[in-house]
Amino acid sequence: MSALTTQQLGLILAQGEDSQHQFKRNISNVNAFAAELVAFANANGGYLIIGIEDDGTVTGLSREDIARLNQLLSNASSQHVRPPVHPTSQNMTLEQGMIMLVHVPAGLNKPYMDHKARIWVKAGADKRHITAREEIQRMFQETGLIYAEENLIPNTTLEDIHRTRLAVYFESRYKQTLEESGLSLEQIAKSLHISSGEQLNLAGLLLFGRNPQQFRPAFMIKAAYIDGTDLASQDYRDSEDIEGPLLDQYERALFFITRNLHRLQAGQGVNSLGKLEIPEIALQEVLVNALIHRDYFISAPIRILMFIDRVEIISPGHLPNHLTVEQIRFGLSNMRNPVIASHATRQMPYRGLGSGIPRALESYAFIQLIDDREGNQFKVIMQRPER
User: Fold this and answer.
1) Whole-model pTM?
2) Is the dihedral of CA 351, 354, 359, 361 positive or negative?
3) Contact status, residue 20 vs residue 45, Cβ threshold 8 Å
4) What is the DSSP secondary-structure string of 78-119?
5) Is 315 within 8 Å of 292 (Cβ atoms)?
6) Radius of gyration over alpha carbons of the chain, in Å?
7) Angle, nearest 10°, between helix axes 280-293 and 246-260?
8) Residues 265-295: pLDDT tens digits?
9) Which value, to the nearest 10 degrees, does the dihedral of the CA atoms of residues 101, 51, 79, 81 take?
């Protein structure tokens, strides 16, 4: 990371603290220092600027302070953070005195914790200690150490597999029937990575389960068409709770949206059905991405909100790791649910390789992508043409 200039620092001080810039008058406790390093490493990295009041006033540090802080930083980063982090420091002389800037890069081995095994994360400009299992699991997920789709579902057995659905999929993929394979259902389920042999995992439940919501009721789609432009309106034109395996959810969600969209003649004959005001291919790509790439560590449904001026599709979980909206616009991807994705290529119009969002944007330009990290959700807004 290149050193900050005085001009850049002035802009940061004027804008105030945020999730990537925190001010400290001084630090004297190694544990407090370690907690700040952990919080930055578990987030997107940032700067800890020492010698500054919370309001941005420069109080300055003595040379003795600088020497002590550098020693404290070395001790905190190597001995009080697990795994160790590797921050860099920069001393800067201002009119009001010297300050110290500590840059902490975003960690590659999350979750980081202090020497008491406490996990700290950023909460705006401050930090907080997390203990909730779901939050900790999501941090392991970011590093690829665990996947929500691999979690075994208690009380499920191979009897909870929709055998006809599995048979159709198996024959389509392998060009032979389940019986012709000569394998038992247990062997097939294990080879497809949808079961331990006895219990279904989440991927198996969502792809081939008879009734997925019996065991995981939150993993569904809630759809509503609101007769207005915001949620405050109490008038609903249509609503539906969409359950079942992912393929059923996809098909029913697509039908919910298309039946509530207008069709435009666009030069076609009067007897033609007309073209959807939002191209179906764009709807397909966005829906498939929502079902496949959502965060299944979050027990919440996907939401489809239709308004008179737009369609919103909201997925639980922000973009994984350090992926940005601009990157996914150009086809970059990060596989959050690889088993579900590998089977979805043969069940839904999903091609993988990060091509879905670029294809949706190519077919329809009026799409806004919002990575809401504070709300831990990803939102796609598709504007409807004015009538």
Assistant:
1) 0.72
2) positive
3) yes
4) HHSEES----EEEEEEETTEEEEEEEEPPPSSPPPEETT--E
5) no
6) 25
7) 150
8) 665 555 556 799 999 999 999 999 999 999 9
9) -70
Pair of tokens at residue 191: 């080879």
pLDDT-derived band at 145 (thresholds 50, 70, 90) equals low
Beta bridge partners of residue 130, listed in sequence order:
119
Structure-token pair, residue 289: 């991405």
Domains and CATH numbers, the chain: 6-131 (3.30.950.30), 148-215 (no CATH), 221-383 (3.30.565.60)
Q: Following DSSP, what letter does each residue of 239-296 receive, concatenated?
A: EEEE-SSHHHHHHHHHHHHHHHS-EE-TT--TTS--EESS-HHHHHHHHHHHHHHS-T
Question: Rounded to an integer, what distance in angstroms lies between the CA atom of residue 184 and that of residue 148?
Answer: 26
Max mean pLDDT range (22-26, 273-277, 350-354):
22-26
State the pLDDT at residue 153. Answer: 97
User: Rounded to an integer, what distance in angstroms lies between the CA atom of residue 279 and that of residue 281?
Assistant: 5
Contact 237/257 with Cβ under 8 angstroms?
no
Q: Where are the beta strands (DSSP E) in 28-178?
A: 46-50, 81-82, 88-94, 97-104, 113-114, 119-123, 126-130
